[in-house]
Design a protein that fits this description.
Elements lengths: L1 H44 L15 H9 L7 H33 L4 H15 L1 H28 L5 H44 L12 H54 L10 H33 L2
Length: 317
């Protein structure tokens, strides 16, 4: 009897240890994922985001916002941001070390192949954190795009452009942005329409009968009305999306023409030398403009692709 009680107690203790180990592994992985984001913040703020290349210091908006919300008065904003990021990274490091010590203590009490048990739990946790990890990786990508945007803008300003050139640069950049964002939004809507068409039958099956329809005694009349209402709602959605696509397509072509017209005008003026040298964008300035616009376009595309990914991911759950 005593042997049975002891075995039962040991089994219960093992279950508690395994549960606690799973919690600790989950916390470690979560802290490590957040840590990777804040390491990216640090690299951006210290100009070390690109390997083997020191660039300008660009603190992400997220960091600057936290500093402002904390009302940290500092003569040097850079110092305030650096302090905040270092404090957060120290917190992550300390927590991870504490959790690892607790896990090692639990391992000593576990029976059987301890490492195999640990790896099994770790793999399970990682699989269940996949969506969270992808969201943080997406944020890291956006930090990189934002860093490149600011770095290219600063590089342009280092060319000592005149006030006229700065205004022209901003005007062309805005025109190109409108062109790109409309094109990418159009692509996003087309993706959503494709997704909707694939899932429309599934959605149709999930729609519940409105309360007033259930009061109709005749089952055939009830089903007929239900089908008509559902078809009308789905057709309205399709019509709305198609209208949006048509409008966006027209808008995109309009922005294309505007941007190309502005470029043609600028090149004609340069060729005819109708503008003073100080009012002309140099080849280097134009190259920087195109690089920054391309970077912005890729950022928009990255955001939209992640939206589509989330759409498909949610539909699979």
């Amino acid at each position: 009897m005593a042997t049975t009680t002891t075995a039962s107690s040991t089994s219960s203790q093992n279950e508690q240890d395994l549960r606690q180990m799973a919690i600790l592994i989950y916390r470690i992985k979560s802290e490590q994922i957040f840590q990777s984001l804040w390491i990216t913040y640090l690299k951006s703020g210290t100009g070390q985001l690109h390997i083997n290349q020191i660039g300008p210091s660009v603190w992400p908006t997220q960091v600057q916002t936290i500093v402002k919300q904390a009302n940290k008065a500092a003569d040097n904003q850079n110092d305030a941001c650096m302090t905040l990021v270092q404090e957060r990274l120290d917190e992550f490091k300390t927590k991870i070390q504490q959790y690892e010590i607790q896990i090692n203590n639990l391992k000593h009490r576990l029976q059987g192949n301890k490492e195999a048990i640990f790896r099994t739990i770790e793999t399970f946790i990682q699989q269940n954190q996949e969506n969270f990890r992808q969201k943080i990786e997406h944020k890291i990508k956006l930090v990189q795009y934002d860093y490149n945007d600011r770095a290219l803008e600063l590089e342009f300003l280092r060319q000592n452009p005149s006030e006229y050139c700065i205004k022209l640069y901003k005007h062309l950049y805005d025109a190109r942005y409108k062109q790109d964002v409309t094109r990418e939004e159009l692509q996003l809507v087309n993706e959503r329409i494709t997704y909707y068409n694939k899932t429309s039958s599934k959605l149709h099956q999930q729609v519940s009968h409105p309360t007033f329809i259930s009061t109709i005694i005749n089952q055939d009349a009830q089903q007929q009305l239900y089908d008509q209402l559902t078809a009308a709602v789905e057709q309205a959605k399709v019509d709305m999306l198609n209208l949006y696509v048509k409008t966006a397509d027209i808008q995109m072509k309009t922005y294309d023409k505007q941007y190309n017209k502005e470029l043609d005008k600028m090149f004609i003026e340069r060729k005819q030398k109708s503008l003073p040298i100080e009012q002309q964008l140099t080849s280097i300035m134009l190259n920087l403009l195109e690089k920054r616009a391309d970077n912005k376009k890729e950022r928009i595309k990255c955001v939209n692709q992640f939206k589509i990914h989330c759409l498909h991911s949610n539909s699979n759950h």
